[in-house]
Amino acid sequence: MSLKEFIIMGGWAMWPLLAFSVATLTIIIERVFYLLLHNLNITDIFETVIEKIDAGSIGETEALLKRYDKRKIGAAIFLSGIKVISLGEARMEKAMESEAGEKISSLENGFSLLIALGSIAPITGFLGTVSGMINAFKSIANAADVNAQLVAGGIFEALITTAFGLAIAIVAITGYSFFAHIVDRFTAEVEKAGSEIVTHTLLARNRGGL
Q1: Which of 102, 106, 84 is CA-nearest to residue 93?
Q2: Radius of gyration for the alpha carbons in the chain, expressed in angstroms and rounded
Q3: Measured between alpha carbons, how far is 156 from 196 in angstroms, rounded to an integer?
Q4: Is 72 helix (H, G, I), strand (E, B) or coil?
Q5: Residue 19 belongs to what H/E stretch?
Q6: Rounded CA gap, 92 and 198, in Å?
Q7: Which residues contact 140 (CB under 8 A, 6 or more apart)?
Q8: pTM for the whole thing?
């Protein structure tokens, strides 16, 4: 059975489901490439920043962070705090929170749409099944000779949309869960690192190093 025959057999609901499947795969593929192109590892940057702050080398720290590629998200977040280090720890914390919020928002692009597709696709599939069952029973009612093949064929066609809708939902929700886990882990690491940077800045000030 070709894809065209499969879609035609499923009825009208297969067309929106086909659009949902394309949208789901497009978002997932785009997010995979986005996350691969943006380095979310902050360990190396964090350790360097801490060392520089402890040594009182704020100018070197800022210069170093500016040299990182823009796709190194952690560097941009830490740089926003280092730029305002002279304004105090509270201002540093706010600056990093603001920058982190913006970066995390960009990482989460498409997440809400994946959730929507994961919810709408099975509902559309069920609606297509109900519509198909109505047509199947109508055919049975109009048939002069009702046999098992006629009944099974109608039910088979009706259930195609349910299966397709559920498959789309599984892919969409799995993709969302995977990406959300990555972003949540990055968020937790950034929050912890930002807190450590502020703490080390305060300690360095108390020692007279800044």
Answers
A1: 84
A2: 27
A3: 60
A4: strand
A5: helix 14-37
A6: 7
A7: 146, 150, 151, 154
A8: 0.85
